[in-house]
Amino acid sequence: MMGRDWRVAGGVRRRLVVAAAAMMTAAVVVGVIPGSQGGAAAQEARQGGTLSIILQPEPVTLTPSTNMAQPTQVVAGNIFDGLVTYDFELKPKPALAERWEVAPDGLTITFHLRSGVKWHDGKPFSAADVKWSLENVWKTIHPRNKSLFENVTQVDTPDDATVILRLSKPSLPILSVLNGVGAPILPKHLYDGTDVLNNPYNNKPVGTGPFVFKEWKRGEYVELTRNPDYWEAGKPHLDRLLFRMIPDAAARAAAIEKGEIQYAPYNPVPFRDAERLAKLPRLKVDTRGYEWLSPLLYLDFNVENQYLKDVRVRRAIAHAIDRAALAKIVWFGYAKPAISPVPSSLVTFHNAKLPQYPFDVKKAEALLDEAGLKRDANGVRFTLTHDFLPYGDDYRRTGEFLKQALKRVGIEVTIRSQDSAAFIKRVYVDRDFDFAISYNNAFPDPQIGVVRAFWSGWLGTGTPWTNGSGYRNAKADALIQAAGFEGDPATRVAQFNEFQDIVLGDVPSLPLLELNFFSVYSSDLEGIVEQGDQVYSSLKNARFVNAPKGN
């Protein structure tokens, strides 16, 4: 890797270092791009083979423009390149943008695009595609980016290789969302003038990435093949990615152990199986590659529910849950108790001095009594239905843990299971639920992944993983809006501290655990984890050490 020249005016640079993650750092990068390998190493890389991958559950769509579900992004990161990608320190690195500059006042960001890039259908990629995607997807329908790009007032494309964003106010988080799934660039020639939400290419995507969509056989697999015209010479190494849907956890573990599956992200097997598999010389269990995400498990209360609309009831439930025991018993230590909706991994923004809800059954009982919800002759105060995220056994077992915890304080819980599409519709569209567990990725800045769970502007849109509780608080909304436009990092920290205090006091959504996901993969693989956003990025660097695997 050759040297890098970070060109930012001195005063601005000092402020941005405080902001962390080099959000608005102007980069000029020369030489081999991150993750690439030059000289003999590239020539010696073994080419070919099929990599079989666990994809669980089955995605609803394959394009991350409106649906940010985990399985969608795992596939899409191999099809769509972004303007940048992220290293393990979450600093942006060149991808479709070879370099970029940020004006000293933070009101102009200029991207210089890589030349010679083609869409998978052979059409040339250009600045027009970036401009169209920002104006028609990122600013309008994307679940995370609508507020982030709100103050982009104009997008100039003086030529096919230059994109200039002009902002009314600085937007510090922008450079933290520009990878292939964070800010997906769609082909203008296939989407312009169409209904983006229902465009058929959402399920047969055309990108610029290292792998090309070939087939989606529902209930069985998604197949991608090597892009022969990929812009990075010699990449990808593999001929094919085969994402297989195996709903049963035991069957997934068996397929991994037998070598039928060589890569399995996102806690693909129960924790006990992970401990056993990690001892096998043919397999590795790895928690790297999730750094960009900062995932947080939370419990959404439907604040319109006849019981849960009372903040005393929500606080009582918070006191009734032993989060340390949940982390140890259900998540086998691959998690730790969360004390804020902003995870502790976001060091700059996390407020560790917030009022807490320690495990206290007597306090929970007292709050429920105060709310007038007395036990009946059977010891039951009221009944709730719980919906858990249908992403595997860990979430179902979390639901069982919550059921037992709430039974101790007189709340009877019925657990309801469904597939991903039904869960999304029930919670975010129909709002036909009492309380539900899910997780969101916080990403390097709360403006990206945290505030969407609380901003009232998302209500009524039916957008997955945005304000499932139905929460409305004018002061919280104002802080969210202000932080989105604030150019001073210290002021933003103060705004997010106040935001955390408000929403944790109202507790429409209860932070449960900061998750630590793991992947399982064959020790016969190289280049499987090479960056901080790996799990949502491409496997272009992955290769088999020994003879390439067959079908």
Describe this structure in words.
The protein is an alpha+beta fold and 551 residues long. It contains 15 helices and 23 strands. The strands form 6 sheets. Strands 1-2-6-7-9-8 form a 6-stranded antiparallel beta sheet, covered by helices on one side. Strand 17, helix 11 (393-407) and strand 18 (411-416) form a beta-alpha-beta unit. Helix 8 (311-320) runs antiparallel to helix 10 (361-370) and helix 14 (474-485) packs antiparallel against helix 15. It is globular and about 75 Å long. Residues 1-45 have low confidence and may be disordered.
Task: Outline the fold blueprint.
Elements: E1 4-6, H1 10-19, E2 27-29, H2 39-44, E3 50-54, H3 70-79, E4 84-86, E5 92-94, E6 97-102, E7 108-113, H4 127-138, E8 152-159, E9 162-167, H5 188-191, E10 211-217, E11 221-226, E12 240-244, H6 249-258, E13 263-264, H7 271-278, E14 283-286, E15 295-301, H8 311-320, H9 323-330, E16 335-337, H10 361-370, E17 382-388, H11 393-407, E18 411-416, H12 420-430, E19 435-441, H13 446-449, H14 474-485, H15 489-506, E20 509-515, E21 519-522, E22 525-526, E23 543-544
Parallel strand pairs: 3-12, 17-18, 17-19
Antiparallel strand pairs: 1-2, 2-6, 4-5, 6-7, 7-9, 8-9, 10-11, 11-12, 13-21, 14-21, 15-19, 15-20, 16-20, 22-23
Helix pairs in contact: 8-10, 14-15
